[in-house]
Design brief:
By secondary structure, the chain is α+β, with helices and mostly antiparallel strands. Helix content is 38%, strand content 33%. A 5-stranded mixed β-sheet has the order 1-2-3-4-5. Helix 1 crosses helix 2.
Length: 123
């Protein structure tokens, strides 16, 4: 499946979840509902996917976890913050680098309108 198709389905599902729940909940609530919507749309979804740090010949299981990995291609990092910071963007870039993925979506559900809480990140 093409990346644009996958990201389109992710955003459609995210808008549906945000419209139904609104802002102000815990990140885990949005994660569970988004996973449900994505699976309902026929996508393969993994949550809290472990991401090791590999440095030369050393593999460290540092406890990094991808919030949602869709179709083993798109990383979705969820936030419930006032606004994105450089650290949030750096986190997604790091996950993309460590996992050899090309695209990530940073979604902030703590916004009045979800369209103001979307950042597409390409490595």
């Amino acid at each position: 499946m093409e990346l644009d198709t996958i990201t389109g389905k992710i955003l459609t599902a995210a808008f549906k979840v945000h419209s139904a729940l609104g802002p102000g909940l815990l990140e885990s609530s949005y994660q569970a509902c988004l996973k449900y919507e994505l699976q309902k749309a026929g996508l393969f979804v993994e949550t809290e996917k472990a991401l090791p740090l590999i440095y030369e010949e050393v593999k460290l299981d540092c406890g990094y976890r991808i919030d949602i990995l869709v179709e083993n291609q798109v990383i979705v990092e969820l936030k419930t913050v006032d606004h994105f910071t450089d650290v949030h963007i750096a986190q997604v870039l790091t996950y993309l680098k460590f996992s050899n993925k090309k695209i990530g979506l940073l979604l902030n559900f703590n916004t009045k309108s979800l369209k103001n809480g979307i950042k597409r990140i390409i490595l």
